[in-house]
Specification:
GO terms for molecular function: kinase activity. It comes from Gemmata palustris. The protein is built from 11 helices and 11 strands. By secondary structure, the chain is of the alpha+beta class. The strands form 3 sheets. A 5-stranded mixed beta sheet has the order 6-8-9-11-10. The protein has a 4-stranded antiparallel beta sheet with strand order 2-1-4-3, with helices on one face. Strands 5-7 form a two-stranded antiparallel sheet. Helix 2 crosses helix 5 and helix 5 crosses helix 6. The radius of gyration is 50 Å and the shape is flat. The two termini are 98 Å apart. The N terminus is likely disordered.
């Protein structure tokens, strides 16, 4: 038998813990009973004293009323609804009555302190109020009586007791608390109580120690007996296992010889199977690669179809709008022509000429917009575009409109000269104007925000100042351009409402808008979520990039970067 077989197993003590539960429960009950008896014996005297002091406070009637009744009358008087002209004097008189009642209660105990053993030495008697207010809506001050005799110090300080209780007021929101600091027993009686406590504590220790030793002895004897039984069972099982092991050894040797023969055959079969598995895996990998290629091509085709459908929808919608507007402009043009013929060479003729020129510009602008939105940015008409000139033209086009109609300033800082970029002029012009329109809407939202904040102000003076400040607030759109190495950077900055982090992450997605249910400016419809997505599409097909800096109520800056063409 090997040395490992002779190693005895560890005794499972917890297996027999259930058998020891009754003994442990009996011992715990005994300890708890003794502890309860000691605590009851130690606190009986103090609880009796507290009951005596409470009965003295509750039942003492100086003015034919107890202290609790006087406190309730005082609180009811403070909360009475129909107050007469003498209400203040009645409240003062009731408070003085309570103070005199307290003084009459404690003066005899102070005068005969130490002469009558059952009289308490009262050091302070206080009534605190919570949820009770006076006529000036301020909290009611507590009623306090403090003994002129100083409180004991040193070891005698431990003899002081505090009694607190709340007299009934029949008012859920009002509460009162009576606090009494007193000393009832003399030192000899306190010493006697401590001696009695130590006596009973000695008795409890004398009972607990033998019972604990007896319980430990019984548990130890039980555990040793069970451990001996487990060891005998384990030895018998080990001997039987050793005999079976000897019988199996011969059979194992025979099986090893047969197994070696089978292993040789299995290895040959595994080699054949591995070669087949390798060929199958190669075929699966080729099939998976072909599927991935097909999926990528299908996804790209679907993306192109979606983009084409999007711009086809935009083109149809814009074409319908432009066609309707052009039809509406035919009649005004005809009427203006007839008015000019009738007016002759007068001042009205010049004004009508200016109106006709403006309508012609509107018609030309509609045709340009129609050509732009009907053409997919992926199929742009590539030329060399001067983005500096584009920014200057944008500033000239929208400055007057911004000042007169939008109530904002459109400014531009563009270096002299030219900056050429390869791209489609109409698409780039439309993208820049979409950024300008987005900045315009942001300033409108900021102005509305300032007005709403002013209207929510409760102070009339502060609300008037805020409304004036909101009315005088001016929106700003600033265009700037500069060279950065091989790139030209275009910036569109506003002082509008700004964007949160979530809006900044999603603002370039198609049909994403924060203005869908909010009319922006004098009949302009809410946003459709196409402006910034069109800008992103134009930049993608022009090799450009877009960076957005924004924070709520801090404005927004769009940085557009294009690769320059060497002149």
């Amino acid at each position: 038998m090997s040395s490992s077989a002779l190693d005895a197993p560890r005794f499972p003590v917890w297996r027999y813990a259930g058998r020891l539960v009754p003994l442990a429960v009996l011992w715990a009950v005994l300890v708890g009973l003794l502890a309860w008896l000691l605590a009851t014996r130690a606190n009986w005297g103090e609880e009796s004293d507290r009951a005596d002091v409470r009965e003295w406070i509750d039942n003492t009637r100086v003015f034919r009323k107890t202290l609790a009744e006087l406190v309730k009358e005082y609180v009811d008087l403070l909360h009475v609804e129909n107050r007469g002209p003498d209400h203040g004097d009645r409240v003062k008189n009731k408070r003085a009555e309570i103070e005199e009642h307290m003084r009459a209660m404690v003066e005899p105990t102070r005068m005969y302190a130490g002469q009558l053993p059952l009289f308490p030495n009262v050091y302070s008697l206080e009534i605190e109020f919570a949820g009770v207010t006076g006529g000036d809506a301020r909290p009611v001050e507590p009623v306090v009586w403090t003994s002129p005799k100083p409180r004991p110090g040193g070891s005698a300080k431990a003899q002081l007791r505090t009694l607190e209780f709340a007299p009934p007021l029949d008012r859920p929101s009002a509460r009162a608390r009576v606090r009494c600091v007193y000393q009832l027993h003399s030192f000899n009686r306190m010493q006697k109580q401590q001696d009695e406590f130590r006596f009973w504590q000695t008795i409890a220790t004398g009972v607990l120690v033998p019972t604990t030793l007896l319980a430990v002895f019984v548990v130890g004897r039980f555990v040793r007996r069970e451990q001996a039984r487990e060891l005998e069972k384990w030895r018998a099982a080990a001997e039987a296992e050793h005999r079976e092991r000897d019988l199996l050894a011969a059979q194992v040797e025979r099986e090893l010889i047969e197994r070696s023969l089978l292993e040789a055959r299995v290895k040959q079969q595994e080699l054949e199977r591995s070669s087949e598995e390798l060929g199958r895996k190669l075929l699966e990998q080729e099939l998976a690669a072909a599927k991935l290629t097909n999926r990528a091509a299908e996804a790209e085709r679907e993306a192109l179809e979606m983009k084409s459908q999007l711009y086809a929808s935009i083109g149809i919608m814009a074409g319908s709008y432009a066609h309707n507007i052009k039809n509406l402009l035919v009649r005004p043009n005809d009427l203006i022509t007839r008015c000019m013929e009738a007016a002759g060479n007068t001042e009205q003729h010049g004004m009508l000429e200016e109106v006709k020129s403006t309508l012609g510009t509107v018609t030309e602008r509609l045709q340009q917009i129609l050509r732009t939105v009907r053409r997919d940015p992926a199929n742009a008409e590539v030329t060399q575009v001067d983005v500096y000139a584009l920014f200057r033209e944008t500033q000239r086009t929208w400055t007057e409109m911004g000042r007169d109609k939008w109530k904002l300033a459109v400014t531009a800082v563009v270096p002299p000269g030219a900056a050429l970029v390869t791209g489609d002029l109409s698409h780039m012009q439309q993208a820049v104007e979409n950024l300008v329109f987005n900045a315009r809407d942001a300033t409108f939202e900021m102005r509305n925000y300032l007005r709403d904040e002013a209207k929510r102000e409760t102070d009339p003076t502060a609300r008037r100042h805020k409304l004036l400040a909101a009315a005088s607030w001016k929106g700003e759109i600033h265009l700037a351009a500069h060279r950065d190495g091989e790139y030209v950077v275009l910036e569109v900055r506003d002082n509008g409402i700004g964007m949160t982090d979530e809006v900044r992450r999603n603002c370039l997605k198609t049909h994403f808008t924060t203005k869908r249910d909010n009319a922006l400016y004098e009949g302009y419809s809410a946003g459709m979520g196409l402006g910034l997505s069109f800008v992103a599409m134009v930049l993608e097909h022009h090799g450009g990039s877009l960076e957005i800096e924004s924070a709520p109520l801090r404005g927004t800056t769009f940085h557009v970067r294009f690769p320059c063409v060497e002149s």
